[in-house]
């Protein structure tokens, strides 16, 4: 295989979802279906299903850093996706490693699961500042953007972010890409009405990272990722009694 034919190497740094709908499991499925090579640094192990999270064990910062080092030192990396971090110490350990890299980073500031379970405390959210600064893109949903201080606070940080509108009410979903000093780019699409939307944020950020790792520009990467998420929502297998998983396996872009 020639260098041009090799898949982009994508490192997903996130928590494990035992039911397979979100987290590292959604990251691996997304990266693979989009033609990337998925590597992982697991930050936490969760016991969860479509009804909620029943247990969380956070991995030590040293072990998270060791996973990152092991991947980068041997395989190499073309882009990074960050999801659930589990603790402020882990967030800082991740930032320490990524600040030395020169590859695109997509940061999904995970705070609350689809079921409503809290996945980040105040200290962890405070540590997000370093990650937003080094990321090529941060992808907050409506409540996460509010917790980060809203559009005004994001503008003061001078960071590029995608304000996801899936949590906002209405028949049309509005996503806005805001890049400091540039006009916002907006995407509107009819809402796909389904309870099987577990892992949409994980999937979107991983898809964006995969395209960026391939050398695609940011706007096109977001467009490709949105198409992937919508296709996965349409293909949801209908598993579980709560917020069910999407159908990553059926997506062909």
Describe the structure concisely for a colleague:
This protein is an alpha/beta fold. Helix content is 37%, strand content 21%. Residues 17-246 form the Pyridoxamine kinase/Phosphomethylpyrimidine kinase domain.
Structure overview:
There is one protein chain. This protein is an alpha/beta fold and 253 residues long. It has a single domain (9-247), classed as UDP-N-acetylmuramoyl-L-alanine:D-glutamate ligase. 37% of the residues lie in helices and 21% in strands. Strands 3-2-1-4-5-6 form a 6-stranded mixed sheet, with helices on both faces. Strands 7-8-9 form a 3-stranded antiparallel sheet, with no helix packed on it. Strand 4 (79-82), helix 3 (88-98) and strand 5 (105-107) form a beta-alpha-beta unit. The longest helix is centred in the C-terminal third of the chain and has 17 residues, at 218-234. The radius of gyration is 17 Å and the shape is globular. The model has no long low-confidence stretch (mean pLDDT 95). This is hydroxymethylpyrimidine kinase. Residues 17-246 form the Pyridoxamine kinase/Phosphomethylpyrimidine kinase domain. Keywords: Kinase, Transferase. GO terms for molecular function: hydroxymethylpyrimidine kinase activity; phosphomethylpyrimidine kinase activity.
